[in-house]
């Protein structure tokens, strides 16, 4: 039996030590039976945590990600990776994660506004964050880290320790397990059926009660078998977010904002989001984004069935919530 582990080095300019360079490690362990990976960074126990009840009172004075503090309280990349230290585009600012789970793990504060209500997010804010992330993905690809993932934890119920809205980006030599699983299944479907699963799904779902709407370059549906509460799937016409033109990126941001508005209308406050994308013009794959609602109370929506049964227990049919969200497209 082999107990395999490896370490990914992290180098940042640390605001806690006058922006001197600091080095740390993320340990990745691989399960000897299933091959599943666990990422361990013991420094994450020291992450600052903002209480949800204090979000409005905290404001700019105490929030690390507000514009008054972001340039002094957040780390920078070493000059060898990014001479200017941080990436800025529109209202977005991107910098290395102070408590990373990968060797190249970035945070992108995509709006200067300290807000949490889903209905208040604007298309330009989401678009600025995505475009800023693409700059980071491009730089990582230049140094041999072509695999990329963009995600969002909004509010503590979704895993966020800082309330100010921010995306997270991870780049690596190999795709994360979720991307790898989707890519392998897509290739298998393409070999067996001679069709692209994602293109076929987008076409077949248009007349179904799970169809939510369309934006430039994207089809938005409630999945037949959701992986979380009120999950929405946005399917691109391209395999990679890196290959999308300006209108398609606007369509991605537009769809995300419409979903958020729909969530707000049915009482959802907290969400998770993940954007799956692969390079190389993969004919069997299409980039796709997934959003799901997280619980608004103290009760977890991840219990024994989800954690150890590897299946999901839900209480709402996708056809039912698709109808509610469709009104916002």
How much helicity do the residues have?
A: 25-40%
Coarse structural class? alpha+beta
Radius of gyration: 20 Å
Query: Order of SSEs, N→C?
Result: EEEHHEEEHEEHHEEEHEEHH
Number of helices: 8
CATH architecture: 2-Layer Sandwich
- What characteristic shape results from the CA principal axes? globular
Total beta-strand segments: 13
What is the CATH homologous superfamily assignment?
Answer: HIT-like
Trace the largest sheet across and list its strands: 4-5-6-8-7-12-13-11-10-9
Query: Spans with pLDDT under 50 lasting ≥5 residues?
Result: none
Q: What number of structural domains do the residues give?
A: 1
* Major beta-sheet overview: 10 strands, antiparallel
CATH class: Alpha Beta
